[in-house]
Amino acid sequence: MTAAFPDNRPDLADLLAFYASVGVDEALEEQPVNRFADAAPRPAERTQPPLPDNVPPGRSTSVSRAEADDRANAARVASAPSARATVPDEAQAALARQLAATATTLDELRQRMAAFDGCNLKATAKNLVFADGNPEAAIMLVGEAPGRDEDIEGLPFVGRSGRLLDRMLAAIGLDRTSVYIANAIPWRPPGNRTPTPHETEICRPFIERQVELVNPKVLVNLGGPSAKTLLNTSEGILRLRGNWRVHTTASGVAIPAMPTLHPAYLLRAPAHKKLAWRDFLEVQAKLRALG
């Protein structure tokens, strides 16, 4: 004979009341739902178009309303501007090379980049992040791509990593009036994702021409993407950093280049700040040697 146990299960009404009190207000579905996905925009409330004048009284108006809806939808589609982003291709890369190569000043280069629509990153960015600092400086620093703060202000390195970069420069006696700062990619990738190889190749002619027009005595590559773009290498930044390389411009000018760690990386790995400090001491010594 089995022992009888009391039934301590709550009744359905109590269970539902408990669920409601803790915010459970919808049932599970048979198919999994991604709650982190962006909610689909609600369709705009549609105003019912007027009925044609030639519909006889008492006659069904369903066909006429459908025809009116079709005409209204066609008009909206025809009048809506196209917002599709440009997919990078070889034609756009060739155009970027032509525009960059024929720019004779930094101002002209900036204007051409602002008018260039061949990179899909421009469609989602708020601003073109061209440069900051002194274009007559002896040292030019090149990062990878703008972040959120840079995209808002239109200037490179203005967020947390920018403040760290300012302190790194100050440690060797420099500031933004004595350096020139740019990025290999002038538009912010959505969500700060890594730029694709196509996007990097589209933008490469612009940063190469920018370096050529500035013609610094020393180039500092902040992070692996900048070093790979301008030094034509596939090595990782931890192997590259601390070793002098050469960036050769299209006109054949050889510029000594120092790859080093990106300030954003140093914020995540502060133990490696000592490595970047050594690299910046090398840059300081090189500047003194070059006069």
Q: What attributes does this structure have?
A:
six-stranded mixed sheet, Uracil-DNA Glycosylase, subunit E, 291 residues, alpha/beta, 9% strand
Task: Briefly summarize what is shown.
Helix content is 42%, strand content 9%.
Task: Explain what this protein looks like in three dimensions.
The chain is α/β, with parallel strands linked by helices and 291 residues long. It has a domain at 90-290: Uracil-DNA Glycosylase, subunit E. 42% of the residues lie in helices and 9% in strands. It is built from 11 helices and 6 strands. It has helices at 12-21, 62-79, 90-101, 106-115, 148-153, 160-170, 197-214, 224-231, 237-240, 263-268, 273-290, and strands spanning 132-133, 139-143, 180-183, 218-222, 245-248, 254-260. It has a 6-stranded mixed β-sheet, with helices on both faces. Strand 5 (245-248) and strand 6 (254-260) form a beta hairpin. The longest helix has 18 residues, at 62-79.
What is the CATH superfamily classification of the domain at 90-290? Uracil-DNA glycosylase-like domain
Query: Strand count, sense and closure of the main sheet?
Result: 6 strands, mixed
| Terminus-to-terminus distance | 101 Å
Helix content: 40-55%
Q: How much beta, percentage-wise?
A: 5-15%
Assign the CATH topology of the domain at 90-290: Uracil-DNA Glycosylase, subunit E
- Strands, count: 6
Rg measurement, Å? 29 Å
What coarse outline follows from CA principal-axis ratios?
A: globular
SSE pattern: HHHHEEHHEHEHHEEHH
Average pLDDT taken over every residue: 83
